[in-house]
């Protein structure tokens, strides 16, 4: 092998190989960085709520200026309106939001010390709509502890508004679930204080959710005579992209509360942008592949006579092709190695920014990018190996 | 491999010729293992073509060539490679050495295929042929006569049933021809092989069993 290499390395052009190395390096870098970036950022746009399933939509009546001044009789849904909605073809089921009909104050603290408090309210939806551990999502009046799901925006407001301006530490979702909460409930002459715990966060439900069992119990206890007609409904649909949903909602002056369409658009543009960048990277990689093939072909061409003589003294085409095949495989693996290092370093640079913007998203996998890189390298190496083999066979057959 | 048969073989370049003389083309001939053959002819009569046909380097002929009765046109690449490593050895008229390598490396590049000869045996041949001092010289810096001797040594570092020598001593003096004759005969006898020599007049003095005029 040593002698064969000594013989066949003649005419290797370091300039051509350097050209290939950098072209392939840039191409692969762009491809793999795009893949990695997409992996890292995708959850920010497409991450499911975690507590509310994706096919659910929140519907409320449109609030108009007239309505604000009390001239429109109600913003709540009657039983007939709910039944009409349930009868629509796009609708699978309808869940009602039930609001607390009494006064609620909430106090926060850590390790028993109360730090600040606020007036608030509770709402519930049927437990079946909540995708949460049912053992944590219930209420027992004998051992009262109120599980709460907060809107994720509350945490963002605290972290990027309040905490930033007051030089307070930012808190993660996990830390938030460890915060002690005390809830004071007042109504019908009764005033009681109950402990509460945050069990989850929702990006899609802009309300403070508690279990339905708690709302039923507390409304009966603190406001037994009040009207509990829902002002919002949770709609389970067969197909969220169905056009008839939008027309029905418009016809009945209803509106959707969440921003699922915006998230969908953002994901689409993320995919589009990543796709374009990956395509550019692949184009560069393909060009670099041709640079390498051209370089190897020229090398084989220049060494044709030597290769032919080796075949004539008993070497097989496999033995003769091996040095060039190892050269290309070595080049491809070296490029892959450096590209992965570059992607890793780049990722460290941008990841701080991403996690500052989207603290809730999980860290993306680097392993997937490694797999993509290995797959591309293996594919390219395989093509190189086959092309070189064919070239040597052609020499055998006097076609070169 | 015990025999090489030629059945009505004629190089394609001679197809247009109306008169084909000689004792090889368009004849049925058998070369047997253990026998020595001399093919004598003037230039341009197809001696090198015959060697190229027998080693599978060229297929531009009509008729058929068989090894032990099997038509060589049916052999695949790996079968030809094995034949060239283990059954057929050839000293090319144009030598086909590698000018970038030293004389010893030119021999070793073939010997390393099967490790058939030791370095000591190879060095003895270099000494016997008077080029021991040129072993580590690149072939490009050697005379054609010296290169011819290197090519001969290279042809002997493999097992063979037939040795084909295409004008092996065209550039050597009589003394060196005789030494080469001795070395070749020793190795041919040792391996029990057959040999076909071609010549344009100047040939090694060996006990040929049959001589063909081409």
SS strand fraction of chain A: 15-25%
CATH fold-level name of chain B: Rossmann fold
Which regions of chain B are unreliable across 5 or more consecutive residues at pLDDT < 50?
none
Oligomer designation? heterodimer
Main sheet of chain B, how many strands, which sense, barrel?
Answer: 5 strands, parallel
User: Portion of residues in helices of chain B?
Assistant: 25-40%
Strand order, largest beta sheet of chain B: 6-7-8-3-9
How much beta of chain B, percentage-wise? Answer: 15-25%
By secondary-structure content and strand pairing, the structural class of chain A works out as alpha+beta
**Number of DSSP helical runs of chain B:** 6
CATH class of chain B: Alpha Beta
- What's the Cα radius of gyration of chain A? 32 Å
Q: Total number of helical segments of chain A?
A: 12
Overall tally of structural domains of chain B: 1
Overall body shape of chain A: elongated
Largest sheet of chain A: 5 strands, mixed
Helix-strand sequence of chain A = HHEHHEEEEEEHHEEHEHEHHHH
Q: Spatial order of the strands in the main sheet of chain A?
A: 5-4-8-9-7
Q: How many angstroms does the end-to-end distance of chain A come to?
A: 24 Å
Query: Which ranges of chain A are low-confidence, i.e. pLDDT below 50, for 5 or more consecutive residues?
Result: none
